[in-house]
Amino acid sequence: MESRIGLGYDIHRLQEGRKLYLGGVEIPYIKGLLGHSDADVLIHALCDALLGAIGEGDIGEQFPDTDPKYHNIASSNLLEIVLGWVRKKGFQVINVDTIVIAQEPALSPFKKHIQENLARILKIEKDCVSVKAKTNEGLGELGRKEAIACYAVTLIKKECFHILLSRYPGSPEKGSCGQDFH
Ligand code: MG
Predict the structure, then answer these.
(1) What is the pLDDT of residue 169?
(2) How far away, in angstroms, is 175 Cα from ligand 1 center?
(3) Domain 3-167 belongs to what architecture?
């Protein structure tokens, strides 16, 4: 079984007049994150973790902020595209773990909803998605409520069919575990 890990990090400035999205969920707050897309810092970190695991660079390379196609795009769409690349390379996502660092707003009422939404997008069980939230103890730009940051880590595993195909190019359409390739 081939397993890989990936690490992602992102930070976005907070600004009045923007909606705040975290993990594809709209969070009621007086400010939102500034960015070319919807600036969902959690999904951006997660995309970077997945891209890192498959050796495909980072979100800035794949979805440049100079491309009008991505202006105000929902980051959940970007995550679905990245997940497609992960699966195309023969991997499935085993789990993701994330830490959002936000002095405000308090995220505990929204963590479960974010977890469920990410699990739905990634097509994995809820308990394979972890969303943790911390303040920055009032320190620095995060503590001054000027920005929100996020770390993400993921584990992916190569599906049976792809391992078999890479070893025996003429092998039948199912892996030894009976999995179909999708
Ligand atoms: Mg970003």
Answers:
(1) 62
(2) 37
(3) 2-Layer Sandwich (3.30)
